[in-house]
Write a structure and sequence with these properties.
Elements lengths: L12 H20 L3 H11 L17 H12 L8 H8 L3 H12 L13 H13 L10 H4 L17 H7 L9 H10 L4 H11 L3
Helix pairs in contact: 3-5, 6-10
Length: about 210
């Protein structure tokens, strides 16, 4: 009775490397594909990759938990930002969609800011406030919530790489109703002088 001999060829090391690179590229492109709702709701103002113009905050590299929390507050009518909350309110119904949008933008890389010269004394004052605070007036160090490099955390936004104009706007004291976490920040801002804010903004521009 005749038999058959099967020869199983092993891929060459170079072929293995090519196959691995191809699989990695395919999986990376799939992960990088923005959710449909991110394009519908966010891209027009924040940019496809979250590095939009100064008229809207950067979402690229922002903490996923923080983005998700803001979207949820918008959906519940607890945060208003121009017309963004209306789009979210009308369109974003699913927790899964919120998580998909949040993790997509969190995975993007913030574009570098062009370096701007600043007064060394102003930078030093801003660095001291950020790293040490001013406990005499009740202002804690910023890094305790926002991270040593401004990377943020689950309850506090990333500040590094954020548009200076947006940061300046968010650091204004407001008497308007705010979510609880924002109200806590408002109390801290009330302890800071205009010169303190100016120094902090100068330092944050270096992160």
């Amino acid at each position: 009775m005749g038999g058959y001999t099967f020869i199983i060829a092993r891929p060459e090391p170079r072929m293995k490397a090519h196959l691995f690179a191809l699989l990695l590229a395919v999986s990376s492109s799939a992960l990088a594909a923005p959710p449909k709702l991110a394009l519908q709701l966010c891209a027009a103002c924040h940019g496809r990759d979250g590095n939009g113009p100064p008229s809207a905050p950067r979402l690229a590299g922002q903490q996923a938990d923080y983005i998700a929390q803001q979207l949820d507050w918008m959906r519940l009518g607890q945060r208003e930002d121009g017309g963004a909350h209306k789009l979210v309110w009308d369109t974003l119904k699913s927790d899964a969609d919120i998580q998909a949008i949040a993790h997509y933008f969190a995975a993007q890389s913030p574009a570098p800011h062009p370096a701007k010269p600043a007064d060394p004394a102003l930078l030093a004052a801003g660095r001291k406030l950020y790293t040490e605070g001013n406990l005499a007036v009740g202002a804690p160090p910023c890094f305790t919530c926002h991270g040593e490099q401004g990377e943020g955390g689950s309850a506090a936004p990333r500040l590094a790489g954020q548009h200076a104009g947006y940061l300046a706007e968010r650091m204004k004291v407001s008497d308007q109703p705010q979510p609880p976490a924002r109200m806590e920040m408002q109390e801290i801002l009330k302890t800071l002088s205009p010169d303190d804010i100016k120094a902090l903004l100068a330092y944050l521009a270096t992160l």
